[in-house]
Design goal:
CATH superfamily of chain B: MetI-like
Number of strands of chain A: 0
Strand content of chain B: under 5%
Number of domains of chain B: 1
Structural class of chain A: mainly alpha
Structural class of chain B: mainly alpha
CATH topology of chain B: MetI-like fold
Largest sheet of chain A: none
CATH architecture of chain B: Orthogonal Bundle
Oligomer: heterodimer
Number of strands of chain B: 0
Number of helices of chain A: 14
Radius of gyration of chain A: 24 Å
Chain lengths: 319, 269
Amino acid sequence: MSRRGRRGLADALPFLLPNLLGFLLFTAGPVLFSLGAAFTNANLMRSVPLQFTGLENFRMLFSDREFHLYFLNTLYFLIGMPVAIAGSLALAVLLSREIRGVVVYRTLFYLPSFTSGVALMILWKQLYNPDFGPINAAIHWVSATLRLGMDAPDWLLSTRNLLGIEVEKVALSARQYGLGARDAIVIMGVWTAVGGNNLLLYLAALMNVPTELQEAAALDGAKPGQVFRHVTWPQLAPTTFFIVVMSTIGGLQGGFEQARVMTAGGPSGTTTTLSYYIYTKAFEEFRIGYASAVAWVLFAVIFALTLVNWKFGNREVAE
Amino acid sequence: MKLRNVLVVALLVLLALSTLAPFLWMVLASLKPLAEVEELNPLPTVWRPGNYPQVFRQVPFATYYFNSVYVAAWVTFLTCLTSAAAGFAFSRLRWPGRDRVFQLYLATMMIPGVVTMIPNYTLMVKLQLLDSHAGLILPAAFGAFGTFLMRQFMISLPSALDEAAEIDGASPAQVFWDIILPLAKPGLLTLAIFTFMGNYGSFFWPLVMIKSQHLRTLPVGMLYFDTIYGRQTNLLMAASVMNVVPLIVLFVAGQRFLVKGIQLGAVKG
């Protein structure tokens, strides 16, 4: 190493080391450890001797019925994502028209995402209560007033879902069609996310769209819808791309708190996501080898979807 | 044109109300007698502010509060201190292998948190930090994100600043402390607020780490409250309100920095 290089390193180390040591110990090291553990039968119970088991965990997991269902659940929870993103965009467009009071609206809309967590999930559990909750009370009231004869959903207690997915096997059935626990969690997620970071990102991006472009298009006789489709939307493409990538990554990792606080993963496992599955395997059954394998499969899925997003997203952005 | 503005405002107000409705229900339910929670009348016929002190009598809520703030404050302090220093080393100093090491930081940011949770748990068992606040604080205090954010923030400052100081004979420590850190203050505040609120509400890690009642943080305490007294909706809602209020205060106080920070984080990608 050159003298300058050594000098540079000597200067940098005091700044770098505290963080780097913590990073290596609590992040980089554990990543390697977990990768190793995925190929063993590692168990938190001392009674199980540690053995290298090769691909056994992965073989087990791919033939595991439960894993299939939980993987499906994890994907199902992504259906709220386009709704939430479209909602954020619509809100941002509305807010960018209304100059007065933007800060107040922004604060109000941001409230759910800023306060999200266990407390709000406990709140939503009460809201969804099929017998006493205000949501079903409102549905009953509307139904009675308009004489619709509607049945209110059982929400967190029901295995029904908007796509009609069966519980026991990966198939569709009319019996399962309706609103159930999965949808309850999706709706709560949309409510939380719409006014959150994505709204702020869209607001910032809309400020950066040159108004001359929109005005020129309007002068040329374009309708507001056309201006949005052909001028504003392409300008927002990088932001949309970023939001889709981040929401996919976050969404696939999600569902743990909801399952732990609201449903215990039920009914019949329909709200167990991969992250909750990993938790139960590692911290309730103590099978950390198997849990690590599931975690790495989850990472592989996230990585693959991010690559797909990247490939198609960048093409859209470049257009 | 005028009519359109009225429509926009009407729509915004409607949407704001539907965002607020669950919060409103929460606050009103927290002030009702239990029997009235399940009734349709939105306002309590008998106001029960006594629900709030009742929460403190049934669970050690003040302890939960203190533990959450204590842990989050420590994590925030350590994160800001070490991330600012490391961000400085990654952005303003030149040393061999710098960008390689930074890429290592970046790469780990893609890996789901659950991947590192399990080895960290076994590490905590080895270090005998299970069921302790140190065990909550240490693994959370050196995340890659803080270093990433500080580096991004510092790299955008003009390089003429430290060059001039170096010519005047300033040491790296002086450049860091007197020049870069004051300029990076908005970034640091953003990081501080993010880190604090993230750890105040952190759930997974305290849930697996903490067994003793007196060490529980707020989210874990809330979960046990819900499990044990789940039928007492009015008290549960009072606890939820008290859980959420500090966050609202923090947001209103720091929103200038937060909004900038979120938008900056995205632009820099």
